[in-house]
Amino acid sequence: MTNPIAAACRSCRKGSMQPIERMQTYAPPGTDGVVITQLAARCDQCGKETVLPSQMDENLRRRAARKAHYGLYLLGEEIFAFRRKYGLTQQAASRLFGKGIIAFSRYESEKSYPDESTTKLIRAAMRHPALLKELADESGVEIPLWEARCADEREREQVSLATSRRPKTSLPRPTVQFLELMEQRTGPLRSAKASNIGATKANRRQKAPAAR
Ligand SMILES: [Zn+2]
């Protein structure tokens, strides 16, 4: 992957930013460590290092790719996104899942990983908001965005209901095939009928002179 850079150093304003790569190692349980190469830039004059805006998408993509090595375990980003979705602080999330106060800070930065049972509990709460609410109530934690997320859920249900009312998407495939078949049939059937009538009239006309 190329690392195109033509940026001047914003720090010393003399040098230019040269591409460098930084290795980051993540060590979820059950792996020897997953090494991700991240793009960055270093000033050739003052040595200042930074990640340029143009490098961020590629870095995100590379970090997301490590998911394939994680098995059951969650990426720090996934835990972060889940917590933020409900407006929970790291401390509140730690308490909700019965962990020490700095647990979520460590999980999100992957300084440590939740044990297997906690990982399973977090994953279950991701899938089932009602479970998250139950855990929160039990531990006296308020979920700031609970109502907002419930409203999202109701909206999603209404959208899926409205979609299912549309006949074309709601009809089972065999029914659609049957209706298409009938449509094809009624065309030829009608013209066959019409030509029959025509034929009958023609027969009568033919017969009529013959009868005279
Ligand atoms: Zn510089």
Terminal residue distance: 95 Å
- Under CATH at level 1, the class of the domain at 76-164 stands as Mainly Alpha
The portion of residues assigned to helices is 55-70%
Largest sheet: 3 strands, antiparallel
User: Would you list the SSEs in sequence order as H and E?
Assistant: EEEHHHHHHHHH
Low-confidence stretches: 187-212
| CATH architecture classification of the domain at 76-164 | Orthogonal Bundle
Structural class: mainly alpha
Radius of gyration: 33 Å
Give the names of the bound compounds. Answer: zinc ion
CATH fourth-tier homologous superfamily of the domain at 76-164: lambda repressor-like DNA-binding domains
- Shape annotation: extended
Tally of helical segments: 9
**What spatial order of strands do you see in the largest sheet?**
1-2-3
Share of β-strand residues? 5-15%
Region (Disordered): 157-176, 182-212
Pfam family, one: MqsA_antitoxin
Organism: Roseateles terrae
InterPro entries: Lambda_DNA-bd_dom_sf, MqsA, MqsA/HigA-2
